[in-house]
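Protein folding task:
====================
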Amino acid sequence: MRRIFFLTLVAMLPVSCNDDESLPIPVQNNQPSNFYALTVGNTWEYKYFQRNVDGTSSFVDTGVVDAVEITNTVNLNSNIYYEFKTVTTGNDNPSSNFISFLNETGEKTELLRDSLGYLINEGGSIKYTNSDFNEHLVDIQSFGTYHIRLTETLVDVTTLAGDFNCLDTHSYIRDTNGDMFPALDHINYSDGFGLVFSTMSFASQSEHFIEKRLNTYTIQ
């Protein structure tokens, strides 16, 4: 059986984020920042691009699109979560090529909230942080462990949606000895806009093969 290891950006282990008083509160102009743009009615459209097989550094449109909308709020255990609905098109018959790793055509939902700078789901798993520069363990597999780490470097990211100043979080895998695999992915969020750009890599390759780019958005 062929086994292909690649970095994923959504699989997380449960962690405790209930003690909000122990974490710094992100503020902007002396007000709590809506860093992740958690407002019902906000929408984002993302397009996926695949590295061209011609040996150049160019990327080509895969035709796969994620349309994301915050549709509702849900109260769970006295915490308000935002319901993210993602409708994927253009991936009706994923095969052995790269787009088999993307969302299949269809609809899915996810509940998320901002716990004082940590973007977490209803299970308490961390998906992102905008203020903690420590390495976070996010998944465990037989071949190693997945990690994310927010860097202290801001990056300028340009997509068809515009120009954004973003945080840069690294996503990577360590083997069972603690050594890093060659792959290093990036997850870029911009304050007040949410996710702008991310990459996906095979663990054994230093160059990523998929880019997820913000195409359009509506922020209230």
Summary: Residues 161 and 216 are 5 Å apart (CA to CA). Confidence is low (pLDDT under 50) at residues 1-31. The first strand starts at residue 27 and ends at 28. The chain has one domain: 34-218.
